[in-house]
Automatic annotation (TrEMBL):
Organism: Rhizobium multihospitium
InterPro entries reported for this sequence: NAD(P)-bd_dom_sf, Sc_DH/Rdtase_CS, SDR, SDR_fam
CDD domains named in the record: SDR_c
Lineage: Bacteria, Pseudomonadati, Pseudomonadota, Alphaproteobacteria, Hyphomicrobiales
Highest taxon above the source species: Bacteria
Keyword vocabulary terms for this entry: Oxidoreductase
Family: Belongs to the short-chain dehydrogenases/reductases (SDR) family.
Annotated protein name in UniProt: NADP-dependent 3-hydroxy acid dehydrogenase YdfG
Amino acid sequence: MGLLEGKIALVTGAGTGIGKEAALLLAKDGATVILTGRRIAPLEEVAALVEAAGGKAFAKSLDIESRSDIFAAVEWVKESLGPVDVLVNNAGSASKVLNARFLSEEEWNSTINVNLTAVFNLTQAVLPGMIAKGEGTIITVSSLAVLNPNLLGGAAYGAAKAGVKNFMTFLHNTYRNQGIRATTILPGETDTPIMNNRARPPLDSERAIMLSPHDVARAIALCASLQKGAVIPELHICPTFMRDTSADIEVARWVGAPADTPDMPET
């Protein structure tokens, strides 16, 4: 019997990268996994992998910037399968413009909505069921950008990930005696599709020394599968080798800058 046998786990951003790998591991441990994301096709592919390995998975498209969609999805899970036992807040996005000097309010708000507000809404949707059962696990993938904010992730991303770390600590301090475990995982650079959106996409040789999505997924699975009397409030995971990111940062500095910016270097 798996360590998560009989549990229901909802994973956001489950179609690729960390979310996909986490879903596969949670299902392997016995959980019924609800795979959510914007695009249904990748979710269905992951569901097929889970089922081929003998697990149970359901694919459900979800707009995590919509509070009503979130509550409807959690209600569907409750009515169809039962209340969510494990929530993995993995979905995230970074703004295209990274420098606070040029970042638009629209991009700021969208980044905050995906990385922070959606976590609040998902948490609020699952908390009543967890409190009623006297147990539940909420795991959020933040970032080491919380500790070292810079132009790699950008102003909005770093602020959102710091906010979500604070929110998870609030949950830990407030609900632990009601059986709710809140965990923040702070990964360093991870070779996921989001890297393709960087101002300077990393070279293959640079990706090779980053964390793999499976590394972070193993940390998620560990935190989810501990016996209910144990919790890991915060877990840092970073690449062994530190790479030189100075070229990335210099490119990112000028993304979105008006052409007549006086101090912008010539290209």
